[in-house]
Automatic annotation (TrEMBL):
Molecular function as annotated in GO: flavin adenine dinucleotide binding; N,N-dimethylaniline monooxygenase activity; NADP binding
Alphabetized Pfam families for the sequence: FMO-like
Enzyme Commission code(s) on record: 1.-.-.-
Organism: Medicago truncatula (Barrel medic)
Top-rank taxon, per record: Eukaryota
UniProt-recorded name of the protein: Flavin-containing monooxygenase
InterPro entries assigned: FAD/NAD-bd_sf (IPR036188), Flavin_mOase-like (IPR020946), FMO-like (IPR050346)
Record keywords, A-Z: FAD, Flavoprotein, Monooxygenase, Oxidoreductase
Entry coiled-coil feature ranges: none
Family listed: Belongs to the FMO family.
Cofactor: FAD
Length: 282
């Protein structure tokens, strides 16, 4: 198994006996993280609570290092867990993964560069790994695919002006008319966020609300980009996980829905938000 960049993985959704959603998926937990347009009071609160944010990340890391033999196999990332979560790169460890490692059925090789050779794979230090089959589990670059579809000048505008696609409400590019991009901006639950954005897009098409001016939409997306940059070094992943509830609130407000979806304030503050909380309102 060739590893280019180490990332944190979790064995399940429990940390030291506590459900994982308590740390990132409630309104209270997301108060610890910066969000776009959060206002002075929320910004001050976020700053005051920043030690708690760091502490939660280390709390989760301590469990993962205890539960999984990451240090034994040189798989401990150098960056905080919170940065992986903020870039939607937290993965669930397959069942029995490390038991197979212990048996010698899975071997690790860390390298930033490699290439094919007659025997299999060769690395920068001239070492080789013999292989009959090489599986490239690299994901895909959606931006490149979009660039092959769009004609000029829109193709050149995709990453203007921040280097990331400026998608208002994660859907509309202010400079590309008559086109929407559902599912491009990631969250921890892509199906949930894409479904909600689809409802938002349907409302836009049905003229239930109007888009702001182009300048305002670009300004909003730039603020989101700056938040992502401060949250993680992997900000180009374009992920809203640390302020996903705020993102959903904005969509609800555009649609004229109540953004607070729970039945009582305790559930609202400490309950996890999921797709079931966003049933379509007439």
């Amino acid at each position: 198994m060739l590893i280019r960049t180490l990332h944190w993985t979790v064995p399940h959704y429990w940390i030291w006996g506590l459900p994982f959603f308590l740390f990132f998926s409630t309104r209270f937990s997301q108060l610890l993280h910066e969000r776009p347009n959060q206002g002075l009071l929320k910004a001050l609160l976020c700053f005051i609570l920043s030690p708690m944010r760091v502490g939660i990340s280390k709390f989760i890391e301590s469990y993962l290092l205890w539960k999984l033999p990451l240090e034994k196999y040189g798989l401990k990332p150098e960056h905080p867990f919170a940065e992986d979560y903020a870039s939607c790169q937290m993965a669930i460890m397959p069942e029995n993964f490390f038991s197979e490692v212990e048996k010698g059925k899975i071997l690790f090789e860390k390298a930033s560069k490699w290439w094919f050779c007659n025997e299999g794979i060769e690395f920068e230090d001239n070492t080789k790994v013999e292989a009959d089959v090489v599986i490239l589990a690299t994901g895909f670059d959606g931006k490149k695919k979009i660039k092959t579809i769009l004609p000029e000048p829109f193709c050149s505008l995709l990453e203007y002006p921040s280097g990331l696609m400026p998608l208002y409400r994660g859907t509309i590019h202010p400079l590309i008319p008559n086109m929407a991009f559902v599912g491009y901006v990631e969250s921890v639950s892509n199906l949930h966020s894409s479904e909600l954005r689809s409802m938002w897009l349907s409302g836009l098409v049905d003229e239930k609300f109007k888009l702001p001016k182009i300048e305002k939409m670009l300004s909003e997306t730039l603020k989101e980009t700056e938040v992502m940059k401060r949250a993680t070094r992997f900000y180009k992943r374009h992920c809203i996980s640390t302020y996903s509830i705020n993102h959903s609130d904005e969509i609800c407000n555009d649609l004229g829905w109540n953004s607070w979806r729970k039945k009582d304030w305790i559930s609202e503050a400490f309950g996890p938000y999921s797709s079931q909380d966003y049933e379509k309102e007439d």
